[in-house]
């Protein structure tokens, strides 16, 4: 089968023809069949077990099992992230992992990693405790050494003082030295580390609780220390508290516990101190070696997991989605088959049947799956086949509402009209080139950027890169028509048609210019810029152009309503909606567009405001100098009468004809039962049951038609006026660009100072990018969006359908658990 037969030519105007299908699949091949359908991605299943809770369904156990495996995979991903490993998108070829084997493997990996983490945590805590102990031994020995040094110095001073004193001094000294050891006061001490931010409070509490009967010394540790309990880097001080008595000791221990101070024993003897430092250093080196070996083993394990992680993750997600889909199928009476229903495009019939046959062969099933089309009156889902270029435009339409099944799709016209209306408001070919270059970067690097997380704003801009590209190209086109490059005109298509009256151009600002050559071939003549008549001329041009564009687009919307009515064979909408709407809109605003074109072609000075106002107030008065062509007065009267006739034409006939149709249909059903068979009567009862909820209420239909008529009549005026936003935003963009150029760039240039010029260029670039390329782009985008949603799509687009959401594995890798 060729690709052309599998995928017919793309038609975005109407959604793909859909069909409701019933699948009867043997249980032994059901899993493989659903998997193959997920690979195909063209079948949307209906939930036939909606009344059952998730725990009452057939495959609830398998889903729970997949959920547990997904939890283990999340654990492994967290471990890899903490270690700094990234799961590789590359996986070894030919490694078809069975789900049962994967479950066992994941359980083993989880248990091994948990055990490694526990052992590493214990070893790291011991290492941190020994590190703190070593610091205490080093810093506390300094306290004792300085205290001993001070004591010896004081003792020598006393000896010198006594030696120079009385004759009795040797006897007193001998008496003091020969006192009994039991009568000497023995001081205890507590040593450890306390957080530096708590050290002052710690010292104050010690002093107050013991009433000053302790001696407290602290030594600052220069580098932050890893706390054994929390594992965080903390700045700490080594403290030594000397006390006397058991009661004081208990108070000090309680205060240490309250402040989270880690206590460590400290020997009195200097020899033992050096011995302890040596032992602790040896243990630290051993622990460090053990921890490094454990980390290396853990890193090797995580690296081996990372090579196959994406494959495992995708397998678990696929299995989970398959069982979720299987739960939407119902068991046959014999409990040997699964029955499923769903929607699929008609062009995919052969592909789905081939997939089901392949699943039967691959699963060695004796019975094949049955594919049969069901007839239903349910509204099918809407499916437009789009590509990376058209998908963004279709999303703009879908944001307003998904098209009803087989309804005319505005997305086809939006591809051209949306960027064009944007460009009318954003017309500057310098700004358009900047937008195009920015979009070109996204398009050239789309393969790389599509796999990266860009943030919300950049992700939105990247998704609409082709929309922005079209907007930029149309902006370059309209910018060439407006002849604006960052508000500066250029003679790109020849010389200007106008020139000064004399060589000095002194009178150019008062008497104006004279035409000396042929008309400028493309766009606005560059001589218009900077003249006293520039603003009135461009205002008139852009305002009339906005009305013409608005009338054309609204007519397109009404014409599409005609094609919708013909497609759905609704003659009432053709004769009592399309025809009067076309007459009403074009009798007023189509006529205004005609007057604008005639005035442009003839160069008349007629006042179109006066013509349109007095067309309603005094239609029979002579037009005088405002007459543009012969017979204009009679044409205006005829158009006014046609517009007045079109209003009751829209309002009254349709509700009465709908009522008549309903009565005839009801009468036809009542008599149809006489000659019908049992099968026909059963179908008719179903038909009557389905329509029993759609009782015809004439008052509701009539009120709805009144609202629709008033909405269209008033909307014809308000929508036409709404298109004047094209003129307003185009003028605002042009004036802002001109202000930035003249008041920033040219002003800085006039100072003849390189420093001021650089500042002026930087300010000009920032203002252009921030205001004109970002804020003005967003503003023009939103206004173009409103014109499409309200003024254009409201004429024909119902947008009350629902999207075709097939079961597919394509987007399953992007979904987060």
From TrEMBL:
Keywords, in A-Z order: Coiled coil, Hydrogen ion transport, Ion transport, Membrane, Transmembrane, Transmembrane helix, Transport
Keyword Membrane (UniProt): yes
Membrane-topology descriptor: Multi-pass membrane protein
Organism placement in taxonomy: Eukaryota, Viridiplantae, Streptophyta, Embryophyta, Tracheophyta
Stated name of the protein: V-type proton ATPase subunit a
Coiled coil: 99-126
GO terms, biological process: vacuolar acidification
Function: Essential component of the vacuolar proton pump (V-ATPase), a multimeric enzyme that catalyzes the translocation of protons across the membranes. Required for assembly and activity of the V-ATPase.
TM annotation in the entry: 420-444, 465-482, 545-563, 575-598, 634-652, 754-775
